[in-house]
Backbone:
């Protein structure tokens, strides 16, 4: 645990000006996507998201997290997601056109990276040993919000990677004492359902077994099970089951 938090402190102390710049750029691109969603703005956002993923892979994991075990594997994970954004840009798999289906939820997720440092402060942490807006889980939850707000067509591969990362992040709550990561883990449950429901419905005209209606029901059950598991984990972490 000490190594984990020391690497976070080193990363924040060295990169906080860059993190501030990236946060401002993300906010500016979001405003442009809402108000002036030109093709240039969409390309700029995809390039920015690819850059963020490569930043997490190269700077966060390969430079500042080298003392951690498996840092290379985690760097590869994020590099692959950066590559997915570049592939998406090249083949236009995600339009980044405004979707009005999940406005409130999407806006909440887009603002959530700013909640990470506030949650750390509320938990008694101090800079630089605290969570910040440009760290793996905060970037992941921002990406989920971006996909909900601006994607009529869901990039199902990227959605799978993000949901997998949320499950990985849940383990850090136990091993490293980061309850802030529940922000990502819990937001993933409804996002997971939305992503796969849209994917199933988009392919409903294709013959499949089981049928689209059955797949939708199975997806709902799966998300309910995951949600119950997350809730149990959270309550257990808060020692509410200590006497059971």
Residues:
């Amino acid at each position: 645990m000490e190594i984990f938090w020391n690497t976070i402190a080193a990363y924040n102390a060295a990169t906080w000006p860059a993190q501030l710049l990236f946060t401002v750029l993300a906010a500016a691109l979001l405003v442009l996507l809402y108000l002036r969603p030109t093709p240039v703005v969409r390309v700029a956002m995809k390039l920015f998201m690819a850059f963020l993923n490569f930043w997490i892979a190269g700077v966060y994991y390969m430079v500042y997290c080298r003392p951690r075990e498996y840092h290379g594997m985690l760097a590869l994970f994020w590099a692959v997601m950066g590559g997915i954004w570049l592939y998406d840009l090249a083949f236009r798999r995600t339009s980044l056109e405004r979707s009005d289906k999940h406005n409130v939820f999407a806006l909440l997720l887009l603002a959530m990276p700013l909640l990470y440092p506030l949650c750390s402060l509320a938990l008694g942490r101090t800079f630089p040993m605290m969570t910040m807006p440009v760290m793996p889980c905060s970037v992941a939850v921002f990406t989920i919000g971006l996909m909900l707000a601006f994607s009529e067509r869901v990039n199902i591969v990227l959605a799978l990677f993000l949901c997998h990362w949320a499950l990985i992040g849940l383990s850090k709550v136990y091993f490293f004492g980061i309850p802030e990561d529940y922000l990502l883990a819990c937001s993933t449950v409804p996002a997971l359902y939305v992503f796969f429901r849209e994917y199933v419905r988009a392919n409903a005209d294709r013959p499949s077994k089981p049928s689209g209606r059955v797949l939708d029901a199975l997806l709902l059950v799966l998300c309910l099970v995951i949600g119950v598991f997350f809730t149990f984990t959270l309550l257990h972490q808060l020692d509410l089951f200590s006497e059971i």
Summary: DSSP finds eight helices and no strands in the chain. The longest helix spans residues 2-35.
